[in-house]
Amino acid sequence: MKKPGHLKVSEARPCVNSFSDLPPAVCQSVGDVLARVGDKWSILVIAMLARGSMRFTEIKRSIGSISQKVLTTTLRGLERDGYLSRTVTPSIPPRVDYELTELGHEVLVPVTALAAWALSQRQRVERARAAFDGRKG
pLDDT tens digits, the chain, 137 residues: what are they? Predict the structure, then answer.
């Protein structure tokens, strides 16, 4: 028996706020943006630069466990996508500073909100993991 308000699949209407109506090229573009800002190293670099301009070694020291190669790749990707700027000051050795652009500061809003949510939900996630792991053994 159908419940009141039940629709057949063919009768269902897409939600106005869903991504289901977007063309594949747009979905790919959204995915590319989310992949960059959702990457753990990108988030950490953006968070470090929220404090202000930093040199490569300062960023590396602040993050700790990141390799030089991964940090270089992350910084280049963030610069390419417009989240940070790179300024080279001629000296010996050259001084290179990184800082957030306007776009980089704007992305702090959703990233900070997501981090706050993750922090508030970490115990629920840990309990779910423990329950899942208990079933697997």
Answer: 444 444 444 444 444 456 667 677 777 777 777 778 778 899 989 989 999 999 999 999 999 899 999 999 999 999 999 999 999 999 998 899 999 999 999 999 998 888 888 889 999 999 999 999 998 66
How many residues in the chain?
137
Specify the pTM: 0.72
CATH number at residue 29: 1.10.10.10
Number of domains in the chain: 1
Q: Which residues pair with 89 in a beta bridge?
A: 95
Q: Tell the residue number behind the tokens 């897409």, with chain if given.
A: 14
With respect to residue 72, please indicate whether it lies within any of the assigned structural domains: yes
Tell me the residue range of the domain where 83 lies. Answer: 23-136
Within a domain: 33: yes
Residues 23 and 117: their CA atoms lie apart, in Å, by 30
